[in-house]
Amino acid sequence: MSSTIMHSPGLTPKADLPASAEPTGPGDDKNPALLALGERVRRLRAARGMTRKALALAADVSERHLANLEYGIGNASFLVLQQVAGALQCPLAELTGDVTTSTPEWLLIRELLQGRDEATLRRVRVAVSELLGGGSGAATGTRGRTQLVALIGLRGAGKSTLGQLLADDLGFPFVELSRQIEQFAGCSIAEIQALYGQSAYRRYERRALEEAIQIYPEAVIATPGGLVSDAATFNLLLSHCTTVWLQAAPEDHMARVAAQGDLRPMAASREAMDDLRQILAGRAAFYSQADMVLDTSAAPLQATFQALRTQVRAALAIPG
């Protein structure tokens, strides 16, 4: 079954246009992203020694539609791109310009990692981090150049409470990254996001973490719950800190946030709880990259702290 490409108004090629000719648009005001996409398709087709006719046949699209795609005319549908990528035997990311397909080395690395299990990918990440000059001690079995402990997890997991107790026990400074972010911005986190947007907030978050790593040779750091959603910042954290994922039951997350004085989650409890469960599910794969996991719902505070203290002291090789 043939697929079609949807065209922007005024950009449909004339009926008598030969498929081998380059389509043109009024004023040549073509979209740069579509032009770049078309160039990648032409380059990949040339690299595989395929004529436009052969590619159109293999992808099950018309030669005219393929010509439009290659020359940046119209807006190619996702399904057509999938078919063209399949015919070129390349990942869709290579058509759309993903950085991990931008050079032969990137492509070879992708091929080596394709289909590997999570444990293997984790070992590769740690090895690459060590090779490039990062690396925490716990992930590799050796002590890193710093003794930084980072607590990760959703808000209400106990990062502030347990973090302060742990810092006092170890004699380390306690750093709440959220407070550092607000100091950099000169306003609250809510104001940062409302006034400047999520991208600006992520930049402040990265800057705050970089400064904490540079300033403190040893510290306990409580991180914002969403830090794991930025891959570059999370990689920085994993490379320089011994990390602990503080887990909690969704009900405990909700109750603890409310106990801190934030009653917004209770305004629509059913919807809020559903959202919370979805956020936990979405971030669990990232949180699980931590060196250690501690369930803060499993026992009272003091017992939970003792379990955390034991794990962290063992990881840092601190007698205790």
Structure notes:
With 320 residues, the chain is an alpha/beta fold. It contains 16 helices and five strands. It has a five-stranded parallel beta sheet with strand order 2-3-1-4-5, with helices on both faces. It is elongated and about 70 Å long.
Main traits of this protein?
320 residues; alpha/beta; five-stranded parallel sheet; 16 helices; 5 strands
Mean pLDDT: 82
SSE arrangement, N to C = HHHHHHHHEHEHHHEHEHHEH
Question: Structural class, please?
Answer: alpha/beta
**Rough shape?**
elongated
Biggest sheet layout: 5 strands, parallel
Poorly predicted segments: 1-21, 136-145
Distance between the termini: 69 Å
**How many individual helices?**
16
Helical content class: 55-70%
Q: Using DSSP, what is the number of strands?
A: 5
Rg over CA atoms? 26 Å
Beta-strand portion reads 5-15%
> Largest sheet, order of strands side by side?
2-3-1-4-5
Quick take:
The chain is α/β, with parallel strands linked by helices. 56% of the residues lie in helices and 8% in strands.
Question: Topology of this protein?
Answer:
Blueprint: H1 32-47, H2 52-59, H3 63-70, H4 78-88, H5 92-96, H6 104-113, H7 118-131, H8 137-140, E1 147-152, H9 159-170, E2 174-176, H10 177-185, H11 189-196, H12 198-215, E3 218-222, H13 231-240, E4 242-247, H14 250-259, H15 269-287, E5 292-295, H16 301-316
Parallel strand pairs: 1-3, 1-4, 2-3, 4-5
